[in-house]
Amino acid sequence: MGGRRGLEAELVRAAGIAFHATPMPSLRDPDSRSSLVVRGLLLPFAILDALIAVLGFRPAVCCTTGGLVSFPVVVAARIARVPIFIWEGNVVPGRVNRLLASGAQGIGATFGGSLASFPSGVAILTGNPVRRSLLRWTKGEGRAALGLPATGAVVLVTGGSQGAAPLNDAVFAALGRLLRRASVVHHVGAAHLRRAEALRDGLPDELRQRYRPYGYLHDEMGAALAAADLVVARASSSSIAEPLAFGTPLVLVPFGAAADAHQLANARATMELGAAIVIRESELDGDRLAAVVQGLLDDPARLARMSAAARAAGRPEAARVIARQLLALGGCVVPDVTAG
Length: 340
What we know:
Elements: H1 8-14, H2 33-57, E1 62-64, H3 71-79, E2 84-88, H4 95-100, E3 106-109, E4 123-125, H5 132-135, H6 139-145, E5 154-158, H7 165-179, E6 183-187, H8 193-201, H9 205-208, E7 211-214, H10 220-227, E8 230-233, H11 237-245, E9 250-252, H12 262-272, E10 276-278, H13 286-297, H14 300-313, H15 318-329
Parallel strand pairs: 1-2, 2-3, 3-4, 5-6, 5-8, 6-7, 8-9, 9-10
Helix pairs in contact: 2-3, 6-10, 7-13
């Protein structure tokens, strides 16, 4: 169950799973009073809609990742006496998850720092689920698939599925300096791809083949993550969890307008583990990015320490841990999944 405007409908249906869209729209602007009033008026109808769907499906357990869209679904599940499992991906828990936590029978957290925000004895550290299709890649396979050299440094820059203009602008400004030190796989987002390709076409011959811009990466993201020696990314939960699962250190640029500054908190938590360097968005430009990236690549001992910290912090088994928690809460027979 999910929203009418999110990616979940497309992704869930494509996986062959039944999907029900609730009438509750997501809250794009948490500070908008008019938006809150409209959603408040819709809430009783959304709860009734969700309750009908829950009673019809008769689930053994309800798992939520939070957000306003999930609220009526979880309320309906509680009315129907369905056990609730909350998964929280950020250090600073979302408002809806904080509100629902007191009625949850289980809570999974990506960061240890968020455990104190939940009722004691209910929350455990699970990590962030990572697609198995990403984890199957090795460094050699990833570089071969993307046409990258088998040796030499590779930097992956990603601003998420739609790209991030501040990150792209910094890369474009520093591109020549970065390419003299490493090959760059750049996940720019579809809206920025034409500009990236134009810049690539204008590069000297010896640098052009070292720059690989992509509008979107799906399963190829696994190849890019496996190939990389360093990842430059936003600080969402998945943007951090995926490189950590490969033991790859990060340069994190938190989204400055993220609610409750949760991306900055995520980035700081990863930095405290020794696996990341943090650049605030307000301080990001080509010079700063080039200096940080070149500094890390030119200090192999430090990069190795960060890689070890990333590997220790990574939780590639997170999806399996959460699945077992759900099966246990629902009283389901737990299958033998030790073979993978």
